[in-house]
Amino acid sequence: MSTIRIEDLADPALDDGQRGALAYAAGLDITFDVDALLAEARTRTGLTDFGPDDFVVRLHAMVDAIESDTGLGPLGRLILRQRTVRLLANRLLVEDQVRRHPEILDIELAEPIIVIGLPRSGTTHLVNLIAADPRLRALPYWESLEPLAGPGADTRYERCAQNYAAATAMAPLVVAMHDQYPDAIEEEIELQDIDFASYTLEWHARVPRWRDFYFGLDQRPHYAYLKKVLQVCTHERGPSRWVLKSPQHLEQIGALVSTFSDATFAVTHRDPVSVIQSAITMAAYGDRMRRPRIEPEALAAYWVDRIERLLRACVRDRDLLPADRTVDVIFDAFMADDVGLVERIYERARLPMTGTARAALDAYMAANPRGKHGRVVYDLQGDFGLDPATVRERFGFYFDRFPVPVESGADRRPGP
Is this structure's pTM higher than 0.90? Predict the structure, then answer.
C-alpha cells in the first residue's frame, strides 16, 4: 500500500491541465440570478412546475450565501452554478413524475437501514458493504446526482463517468480519500438538496450565512421531501428496502426518526481529531481548484466548530433512536471485523444473514481493501497549525458519552 503525503496543501503546485481549467472559468461571466437559474432548469427539462414554491426562499438564501463567499474562485462559482441548475432540473423532473404517477406516494419504504455518523468515520465503507447485499436498495453516485432522466436518451451514467474522469484529473488524490466513482454508494443528502434545505453547501464554499439559515429550518418537511424522492427512485427500480447514510442525520435525529419510524439505525463513532484532520485535508485539497487562496487555518477553525455542533446534537438526541433497533458502531471495532458488525446490524433489522448475502459482502471486501488507492498521511499540526490534544479537549462531552478510543498520536484521553 502506497503512502501519500500532500506536500503542497497550502500552496498548490498546479499542472497545465489544472491551470487551463482555472483560466477557462476565469473567462466566463458566472452569475447567480435566481430567475435565470429557474429559467435554465425549465429549458433543460421542458417542464415548468417546480411544485410547492416554498423552496424559492431557500434558493435565494443559498445564492446569497454563495455570493457572500468573496474568496470563492471562478471555477468554484461555475461548479456551484451548474450544481444549482442540476438540482432545479431534478426538482422539475421529480414533481412531474409524481404528478403523472400519483401512486408513487403510496409506495411503502419499509424498515430501511440508516447509517448515521461523521464524515470520515466509516459511514461510506459501512453503507457500501451493506449495499452489496442484493436484497437491499441503495443509491449509487450516478443516481444521486440525477435520480430521473431528462428528455431524450438516458445518459446519466455516462455523464457521471465523464465528470468523474474530469474531476479525477483535476484532483487525482481525492480517490485515495473518498472515491466517488459512478457506482459507489453515496449519500441521500444529494436528494435532500433538491428541496434546498441540507448542509451540503458548507462543503463547497465558506458559507456561515447558509449554515445559520439552515439551523433555523424545521427539517421535518424537508425529510418528508426526501422520502418522496426515495419513493420516486423506488418506482423507477426496486427493491424497496433501502440502506441510507448521511452525516447530516446526526443533528436531525428527531426529523429522521419521525420520517422513517420503522428504520434500523447504525451510528458510527470515531475519534473526532481523526475525523477532523481527514475531512479538512480532503476539503483543502479540493479547494486548490475552487479557491485562489486555501487559507487552511480558517478552514480548520470552521470545521472544528462544525464537527463539535454535529456531535453535541448527537449526544443530545441519541436516545431518540429506538434502543432495540440501533447499533453504535465504534470505528476501530468495525475495521477489525467489518462483516461481523454488519451481522449485528442485521440482527437488529430482523434481516437474516443468508449464504448469498454473506458471499456478496465477502466479495465486496475482497475487491475493496482499505487503502486500495493508497493511504494519505494527515498532519493536523503541520498542515493546519492545530495541536491534536488541544482540539481533542473540546470533545470531552463526546468521549464521556461513547466508548471511543483515542487514535494514534494522542497524548492522553480527554478528561471530563
Answer: yes
